[in-house]
Amino acid sequence: SMAPIVARRRQLANPLLLAAAAALAATAVSSLAAAFAGQLPRSARSPRVGRQAIELSDQWSVMGKKAQELELLLDTLVFNGTAADGGVVVEVNGRQKPVGLKLADNLDIDGDVGKHIKEAYAQAEAQSLEEMTHMLQELYATHFKDQPV
Length: 149
Description:
About 60% of the residues lie in helices and about 15% in strands. By secondary structure, it is α+β, with helices and mostly antiparallel strands. The protein has a single domain (about 1-5, about 15-145), classed as Nucleoid-associated protein YbaB-like domain (Ybab, Chain: A, 2-Layer Sandwich), CATH 3.30.1310.10. α2 (about 40-75) runs antiparallel to α3. InterPro entries: YbaB-like_sf, YbaB/EbfC. GO terms for molecular function: DNA binding.
């Protein structure tokens, strides 16, 4: 049987909100820079910039909400990695945070246990990262498909 060992959780910077902020900030900066650099006709500058600022603010709110919902979903997912012929199992959530470690009662490791834990973590992390990347791509594709270019 496996004896559970509680893993300590670490709080990391929020990569989802940072990515969303960068994407929307880049759009806002390019639109505003074009307006202030005189690339738009004078008659279109103020009203268009004002509307764009409101639209970008709305987009930011929607994207932020979607990112928070995705984070909650990712926190519920669990990915397992194993090592030492299944004697070491590491569990991580959908954001690659360790959530569990199980060691077999009859675990017979003639070397460094840490090495096996790292090996199992690397497997679980790779699975989790792949799924998170897929979900982020879907989020961005869905959110930006109807946005004007």
